[in-house]
Amino acid sequence: MPDLTWFAWALLAIAAFAVGVSKTAIPGVTTVSVAIFAAILPAKQSTGALLVLLIVADVFAITAYRRHANWRVLIRLAPAVLVGLALGILFLAVADDEWVRKVIGVILLVVIAVTLVRRRIGQTVASGGSHRIAAASYGTLGGFTTMVANSGGPVMSMYFLASRFSVKEFLGTAAWFFAIVNIMKVPFSVGLGLITVPGLLLDLVLVPLVVGGALLGLWFADRIDQVLFERLVIIFTVVGAVYLLVI
Predict the structure, then answer these.
(1) For position 128, what pLDDT does the model report?
(2) Would 83 be classed as within a structural domain?
(3) Rounded Cα distance, 161 and 170, in Å
(4) Which of 65-69, 154-158, 191-195 has the weakest average pLDDT?
């Protein structure tokens, strides 16, 4: 078990709770968890430990929103996501932590800008014959960022926002997407030394907080307004991108 101060444990508890909330109510909050884990734990251990908690939260998200997923979109994204995962594995093998953070931060800001411009002019990823290009670009970036830093949420949130999904369709599609991708990442994370015994022991302590956050998120998702939901997703994505660039 990692030797941490009470304050560090408190921050990790907040991060674990945020993981649960993000999976069942407000995608993008996970970026806060990524930041906290990276600040407290060694880089590799933080990524592996967080991955396990994300998978636990995925179970709740799938259970709640399994009927709301848009499988046409998921199938369309699959080839590009696999390419992104492969690129992420190669990047992790050669890049240091600082390069990883900066590259992801820049990618997120570009994705946000493109998404907001498209929404401004009334386009969606399914209009104008551009859905294949959008799926290829967002899917590759999503696979890449989720592999290198568990930061695929903001990228895919922008894609789902551009698709004009309702709250439940957004959460259901995201739930299945990340459940599948996160499970695929496990063997590679073990091979790269990201998942460790100390990290798993840490997860055992934090899992109840993930469960609590997921249950609160389920309550909140039934009451959140569509416009507020979309604004919160964008705000948390921007905050996460800026954080990755300045730390």
Answers:
(1) 45
(2) yes
(3) 8
(4) 154-158
